Amino acid sequence: MTYVLGLRCRECGTDYPHEPLHVCDQCFGPLEVVYDYAAIARVLTRDAIAARPRNLWRYRELLPVRRDPVVGPYSGFTPLVKADRLATALGVEELYVKDDSVNHPTFSYKDRVVSVAVSKAIEFEFDTVSCASTGNLANSVSAHAARAGLNCFIFIPDNLEQGKIIGSAIYGPRTVAIRGNYDDVNRLCSEIADKYRWAFVNINIRPYYTEGAKTYGFEIAEQLGWRFPQHVIVPTAGGTILPKVAKAFKELEKIGLVRGTQPKIHSAQAGGCAPVIGALHRGSDLIEPVKPDTIAKSIAIGNPADGYYVLKAVRESGGWGEAVTDAEIVAGIHLLARTEGIFTEPAGGTTVAVTKKLIDLGRIPRNESIVISVTGNGYKTLEAVSASVASPFVINARLQEFDALYDSLAPQARRAAGHE
Amino acid sequence: MPVHVRIPTPLRRFTGGAEEVGAAGSTVGAVVNDLERQFTGIKERLCDEEGRVRRFVNIYLNGDDIRFLSNLETAVKEGDELSIVPAIAGG
Question: HSE (CB half, 13 Å, CA atoms) of A325?
């Protein structure tokens, strides 16, 4: 059973069939899945959802699949962590971290979109899946392709972190590193996608792929007891997740699962790659591309395809957005780790740092409920923090040596633990 | 022919299926006008009513986004390659 009616251009409204298409012939606008919400509202109840396994497919009527999904049976339904120590550090009352750093199987939010994309690739009978990626998407496509038994080609910039490169290579894809940045990779891939009949998850499968990101928003509302938070802070790279989280909240209201005021959605970018925040602050719809220069490589996309929709979703929701420096990003990673025991990559550090900035600027009132989106895992990007963490003390296996060390370093150790 | 223009799938019905065509002009804008002269209707797909490049269209001159150059005013010369690429998602 499917509730998908077809595809429609988000810009000019031209209708298209349920096929691997992604660009409107008329205006080049992106295509969006159209659902039969009235039919979904009749079947998708809170009780129906509660009875299902804890993965992203529990919202399957709101996802664009025609058959029982075979990909991603363990993806999604990541923890919504009540972050009281981080709340104290930021001076706010009610704070949560939606923690996709522990998403299955590759530790980023991409396991959601790829579960849907690879399911569609199988439905459309492709034998090869592919993507352009800053790392996390490649990791996820490689892993899901391996489990589905599909061929896999991934395309990445040639400057990625070791963890991101090996984190794909281990699954056995063909990896092609392009000399240049992500925007160069993307440009090449759109030409390759035109020529080879592959399922490029972020190109010809894009309308379906992006729908998977909605599950991040569905889960936030469900895990809060079917209510909306007042603020959600989401990192922005190509612009996929933020508009889809906004869409998720609207769909939950439309089918009657959640009532109440829609959340304000805020965008977080790294200062070294902030084309969307630039346009937001200028009050413009026109996103001027930039050449990225930041340690937050997973969100270093200078020419964000869906940046316009990020602006639209942020403005419609009454949210805002900020950019932060690399130093603030590293501080954000440390703060989250030391208060909540969650180790995120620089994209998550960006989101934490931007949240702090939005609170300090008064954009987010201290007494309102807040969800910080952590979309990736710090163990993949050790380079970003290796210079800013303490090295181990090296001693021989003798108690006396430890006693001497403890006596000499205890005050410093206490400081490091935040007790002084 | 001075400039080689790479045509993406959604526009190939204008070019009789050709993936690459030749076009003349001293700027990117002039090349787009020459494409329109050869393949009526193609410019409307690339540019909006005010003549600006549409939001979801990227044009690259020898691999560089023309928005980092001088947009439609960017100078082109014989042998240059112009790629027309729809915006794509990712990360």
Answer: 3
Cα end-to-end span (Å), chain B: 37
| Cβ(B91)–Cβ(A298) below 8 Å | yes
Rounded Cα–Cα distance for residues A395 and A392 (Å): 9
- Which residues from A are below 8 Å from B88, CB to CB? 22, 132, 186, 189-190, 202-203, 206, 305
Contacts of A376 in chain B (CB under 8 A): none
In-domain check, residue B91:
no
When divided into structural domains, chain B yields a total of 1
**Residues contacting A415, CB < 8 A, separation 6+:** none
Task: Report if residue B33 sits inside a domain.
Answer: yes
Asked if residue A236 lies in contact with residue A304, where contact means CB atoms within 8 angstroms, the answer is yes
Which CATH number is associated with domain A80-107+210-384?
3.40.50.1100
Query: Considering Cα of A286, then A308, then A276, then A280, what sign does the dihedral take?
Result: positive
Domain locations in chain A?
80-107+210-384
3-state DSSP call for residue A358?
helix
Coil, strand, or helix at residue A369?
strand
Residue B19 lies in a domain: yes
Q: A266 has which bridge partners?
A: A233
What domain range is B76 assigned to?
3-86
Query: Which chain A residue's Cα is nearest to B6?
Result: A191
pLDDT per residue, tens digit, chain A (420 aa), is: 789 999 999 999 999 999 999 889 888 889 999 999 999 999 999 999 999 999 999 999 999 999 888 899 999 999 999 999 999 999 999 999 999 999 999 999 999 999 999 999 999 999 999 999 999 999 999 999 999 999 999 999 999 999 999 999 999 999 999 999 988 898 899 889 988 999 999 999 999 999 999 999 999 999 999 999 999 999 999 999 999 999 999 999 999 999 999 999 999 999 999 999 999 999 999 999 999 999 999 999 999 999 999 999 999 999 999 999 999 999 999 999 999 999 999 999 999 999 999 999 999 999 999 999 999 999 999 999 999 999 999 999 999 999 999 999 877 655 655 444
Using the beta-carbon criterion (under 8 Å), do A27 and B45 form an inter-chain contact? Answer: yes
In a domain, B14, yes or no: yes
CA A219 to chain centre: 14
Q: Does B68 touch chain A (CB under 8 A)?
A: yes
User: Chain A neighbours among B 1-60 (CB < 8 Å)?
Assistant: 6, 8-10, 13, 19, 45-46, 54-58, 60
This complex has an ipTM of: 0.88
CATH of the domain at B16: 3.10.20.30
Instruction: Report chain A residues whose CB lies below 8 A from the CB of B58.
Output: 187, 303
Please check whether residue B63 touches A, CB under 8 A. yes
Interface touch A194/B8, C-beta < 8 Å: yes
Best CA proximity match to A117, nearest among A138, A100, A98, A102? A138
